[in-house]
Amino acid sequence: MKKAIVIASLALGAMLAAPVYAADMSADDPAEIAMQKIRADKKYIVSQNMTLTDAEAAAFWPVYDEYQAGLLKLNERTVGVIKEYADMYNSKTVTDAGAAKLLNEQLAIESDELALKKATIPKLNKALPGVKVTRYMQIENKLRAIIKAQLADKIPLIGGDKK
Q1: C-alpha–C-alpha distance, residues 44 and 4, integer Å
Q2: In sequence order, which residues have a C-beta less than 8 Å from that of residue 112 and are 6 or more positions away?
Q3: The total number of structural domains that make up the chain
Q4: Would the pTM of this model clear 0.85, i.e. be above it?
Q5: Residue 111 lies in a domain
Q6: Could you give the CA distance from residue 131 to residue 62 in angstroms, rounded to a whole number?
Q7: Could you list the pLDDT tens digit for every one of the 163 residues in the chain?
């Protein structure tokens, strides 16, 4: 599983930027095709790391798709925060008020991600035994942690002072 997650993390990092370009994409646009492939790769990783019976799979995948749609909305908001920070950072216009606004939005996104998980767990519990629900959430958490770590590595600290 480690190898699959490492490979997937490279591709999944691009998912966070996808919403920025979504308005300009059509079904035959190479960028849209790439985004569809990334989503399919993630689904493949999940499928390879879950041992689902046919009945479990029939119940699980619709919940998975709904959860991914919710995560995509959160990713779009995260991209917005990153873009706003980048604009402020690059133009050297970061203010205390601007920083507080970005922090509050990021906290709201994190809160909404937790709410999404809490809303999804009962649906997963109807589809799968508890061990498989936990396994799936572990896979999701690992993939998202890798993506967040990659983002954190690329985003400079605010303020620039090293005092």
Answers
A1: 10
A2: 74, 77
A3: 1
A4: no
A5: yes
A6: 19
A7: 444 443 343 444 444 444 333 444 456 667 667 667 777 789 999 999 999 999 999 999 999 999 999 999 999 999 999 999 999 999 999 999 999 999 999 999 999 999 999 999 999 999 999 999 999 999 999 988 988 898 888 899 988 655 4
- Is 103 in contact with 85 (CB distance < 8 Å)? no
Is 162 part of a structural domain of the chain? no
Please count the helices (runs of H) and the strands (runs of E) in the chain: 6, 0
* Six-digit token string for 50: 């879950």
Q: Judge whether 28 lies within some domain.
A: yes
Core vs surface per residue 43-78: b (16+ CB within 10 A) or e: eebbeeebebeeeeeebbeebbeebbebbbebbebb
Structural domain boundaries, residue 8: 2-154
Q: Beta-carbon neighbour count of residue 128 at 10 Å?
A: 21
Instruction: Indicate whether 161 belongs to any domain.
Output: no
Contacts of 87 (CB under 8 A, 6+ apart): 93
